[in-house]
Amino acid sequence: MSPPVAAATLCVDGVLLDGEPVGLRTAAGEIVELGQDVAPRAGDRVIDGRGLGAVPGLVNAHTHAAMTLFRGYADDLPLTEWLEQHIWPAEARLEADDVYWGTRLACVEMIRTGTTRFLDMYWHPEATARAALDAGLRGVIGTPLIDLGDPERAGRVRAAALESTALVEDLANERIEPSLTPHAIYTVSEQSLRWVAEQSAARDLIVQIHLSETAREVDDCLATHGVRPAQYLDRVGLLGERTVLAHCVHVDDSELDLIAERGATIATNPAANMKLAVGGAFPYAAARARNVRLGLGTDGPGSNNSLDLLADAKLFALLQKHASADAAAAPAHEVWRLATGARSPLLAGRNMLAAGTPADFLLVRTDSPELSLGDLEAGLIYAASGSVVDTTVVAGQVLMSGGIVEGEAEIVAMARERAARLGVARSTRRAP
Ligand SMILES: [Zn+2]
């Protein structure tokens, strides 16, 4: 299967934008014309936009895409037991082709549900990068760095991290960006965290790390380092504008002050947090009051189990309202900006479609029952699921049109074959 080929130019004709029918033309990966007078030109691939609305693509700020392979395997267990007794032993058997096909499956789901860029942390990152590239999505991709405080292992995993960034860079595609991804403060030594900070600064690489997912992590950090997790991360030089902090459920006001001051981005993952019962909700009101940079993630499909970011957007809004006993918390407009990456410059930094911006956008079915009445953003957050996405375009390439992603059947078959090889495929036997 070859990567999707971009038409040199594309024109979406008569699509709704902010309630008005417009023409939208792209060339060389960018939106070049947008407005009521814009019409198709000779040579354009033309998409009939009637009955559709143009909106920006969604940005999944934290995932482990290839964990589609582990979907429905060892559900309903506490986080530590799930990881240590089930996921990590299965991951020890992973080969690059498992990751490639698991990620291709994830990419089909993300394309179908409107995600155009994802931030990923997983094994065999060069396979993830190839899969994202072949699927046509944008990805920020790194390999989990875990040394468990062992100096010999630290040497090996640092070398592996550099090798994987080089392999991702070798793909030489502007849609794919390498990243450094230390797993968490409790699995990576202080020396290696400092090393990551130096490498990130020297090479301008995005860093992704899990932080304060559980109360136990906070207690252990206080006992071991005498400070809370965000303060510890700051002490080792890792709390900066290039850093994405996944979770931050158990951060206090002093940590949010520091995160805001340093310009780090928090990726909140409401579905995974609730499914793994981490005992709390991300303190959104406090983060919002401090203008903390924010994004929305699904976390891995082994712990969500969906990659439909619109589902997470609704869950985020509902969890925040419920936890704060305030129906005005997390209004739809704010959550829509969160889901499109508009609330952090590391993610997208904007959610406007305009001439001169990358041609990453969705055409959603505004004639569908979920979106046919009322405010579009409220409809997308509260009423719709990813099934309202008709067309997904990244860098001017049409990755899905009319709800069809090319090659889907082959990708599903290959992912099933790889899951069977790993011994994690769905059992055909009935439960006793
Ligand atoms: Zn994660």
Walk me through the structure.
The protein folds into two domains: 9-56 and 352-409, Urease, subunit C, domain 1 (Roll), CATH 2.30.40.10; 58-339, Metal-dependent hydrolases (TIM Barrel), CATH 3.20.20. The chain has 14 helices and 17 strands. It has helices at residues 79-91, 96-112, 125-135, 151-170, 190-203, 215-225, 229-235, 253-262, 270-275, 284-289, 309-324, 332-339, 376-383, 408-422, and strands at residues 9-17, 20-27, 30-35, 45-48, 52-56, 58-63, 115-121, 138-142, 144-145, 176-182, 206-211, 243-247, 265-268, 293-296, 361-365, 389-394, 397-400. The chain is α/β, with parallel strands linked by helices and 432 residues long. The strands form three sheets. Strands 6, 7, 8, 9, 10, 11, 12, 13 and 14 form a nine-stranded parallel sheet that branches. A four-stranded mixed sheet has the order 3-2-1-4, with no helix packed on it. Helices cover 38% and strands 22% of the residues. Zinc ion (ZN) binds at residues 62, 64, 210, 246, 299-300.
Tell me, briefly, the overall form.
globular
Query: So what's the oligomer here?
Result: single chain
**Rg to the nearest angstrom?**
21 Å
The total domain count is 2
Find the structural class using helix and strand composition.
alpha/beta
Number of helices: 14
In short:
The chain is α/β, with parallel strands linked by helices and 432 residues long. The chain contains 14 helices and 17 strands.
List keywords for this structure.
binds zinc ion, Urease, subunit C, domain 1, 2 domains, four-stranded mixed beta sheet, 432 residues, alpha/beta, TIM Barrel
